[in-house]
Amino acid sequence: MIVHNSRSLQGRIRVPGDKSISHRALMLAALANGACKLTGFSPCNDCLATLDAIRALGVDVEIHTPHKLTVSGKGLRGLQAPASPLDCRRSATTMRCLMGLLAGQIFTSSLTGDGQLLRRPMGRIIQPLRRMGARIATAGPVSIIIHGRPLHGCDHVLPVASAQLKTALLLAALYADGPTSIHQPGPARDHTERLLAAMGAHIETGGATIELRPSTELSPIPIHIPGDFSSAAFPLVAAALVPDSRVTVLGVGVNPTRTGLLDVLRQMGAEVAIENERLQGPEPVADVTVWTSTLYGVEIGGETVVRMIDEFPVFAVAATQAHGITTVRDAAELRVKETDRIRGIVAGLKAMGAKIQPLPDGFVIQGPTPLRGAIVDSYGDHRLAMAWVVAGLIAEGETTVNHAHCMDDSFPGFVQMMQEMGARIEP
Q1: Contacts 24+ apart (CB under 8 A), 136-145
Q2: C-alpha to C-alpha distances, 22 to 51, 65, 275, nearest whole angstrom
Q3: Helix, strand or coil for residue 386?
Q4: pLDDT value for 198
Q5: In this predicted structure, what is the pLDDT of residue 142?
Q6: What value, to the nearest 5°, has the Cα angle with vertex 45 and ends 146 and 82?
Q7: What is the pLDDT of residues 73-105, one digit of tens each?
Q8: Strand partners of residue 60
Q9: 97 near 165, Cβ under 8 Å?
């Protein structure tokens, strides 16, 4: 993909439905005692992996449009043994959450996926599930085998604030013989808890602790999925950087466990407006506008990192244009994403002329520095690919993004949307 320097971005746009919520909505709807209508579903590659998996477990899914589905839930005890291994493709959310869902079934199943996925750490999910009585084995580098069996309630203290780990444990807890408590060290995204509460599960949240008591059924509900904030981050940051720009993302989720980037952009001096705030089902939604802004360096660490963990590639692009020094710490989790994102961020931005140095758990950027066009690689990471598109819009000359096809993992239609706002991109 070829990206050219662009003069202005203008538009009122909508981004695909929230990927994290789409995964969770499919899985919980599959366990509901009846049909759930999903609107705003994200038809990205990762979510389609989850869709195929629940169908393989015997759940009927009617696709009305790419964004509107009806999931005919089978109830907590109605799933069927799959005929073959469930292919999670490149989706860690699919694999990790399915481990929790399948651990308490009465059948044996297995999970496999793309080589990039199978290199990611899964022990953080397997070990706490085993404490609940789960029987999970690994078969070399190609699959995870889950022998479903009765589970026990357990008291978990999470070593990291991980929404995927938390979701796996909550799904398993639906099948436990007693209450399960989860104590988390930070504000990991809480979409699973919100959906469980809306579907009538016996769940209580207070501070850093969640308790789920076994349920006999989950009630079917309509699930309205807002726009994905992590996808919205790319056009919003681009609007802050490209001269004479103003971009509004309509109907985007503004769950406070997800909007750390907005807080940081404001801290950097960006002009940000949040309007038309409302609830869409259990999730807060709003229209978010960003204008071209003068930015200043910031220091980021602690809980803020968890609330913007997926936005660091495009945030790093913004930091190259900020006055002063930007430092990111406490973000070692970036090293075990689709790729080592710290390494990828540093390599790409250095190739474009940025002054950036890696840290074991983050990076340091000195700005502002004019970027120059270069050949950069996504390493198969969708968020790196889209970040390099944003960087190319403000770079002098031509930027070539290699392995750009992976953007469809989370944001099908990204290039067309950016082009319609004025971005000069040649797919």
Answers
A1: 136/99, 136/103, 139/110, 141/115, 142/112, 142/118, 143/85, 143/110, 143/111, 143/112, 144/95, 144/99, 144/110, 144/111, 144/112, 145/108, 145/109, 145/110
A2: 9, 15, 24
A3: helix
A4: 97
A5: 62
A6: 30
A7: 999 999 999 999 999 998 999 999 999 999 999
A8: 72
A9: no
Q: What's the rounded mean pLDDT across residues 47-62?
A: 98
Residue 125 contacts by C-beta under 8 Å, 6 or more apart in sequence? 96, 99, 100, 164, 165, 168
Average pLDDT across the chain, whole number: 95
Chain centroid, CA 282 distance in Å: 18
CB-based burial, 237-268: b 16+ in 10 Å, e otherwise: bbbbbbeebbbbbbbbbbbebbbbbbebbeeb
pTM assigned to the model: 0.94
**Helices of type H across 320-408:** 341-351, 382-394
Q: Which residues contact 157 (CB under 8 A, 6 or more apart)?
A: 183
**42 in Cβ contact with 115 (< 8 Å):** no
> CA-CA distances (angstroms) from residue 166 to 35, 61, 260?
25, 26, 19
Catalytic-role residue among 18, 87, 190, 310: 310
Mean pLDDT, residues 225-243 taken together: 98
pLDDT tens-digit map of 301-352: 999 999 999 999 999 999 999 999 999 999 999 998 878 999 999 999 999 9
d(CA 356, CA 364): 6
Residue 273 tokens, joined: 């407006």
Name, of 86-100, 114-128, 136-150, the range with top average pLDDT: 86-100
Q: Can 310 be counted among the known catalytic residues?
A: yes
Q: Encoding tokens for residue 336? A: 């075990």
- Which residue, chain included where needed, has tokens 């598109």? 389
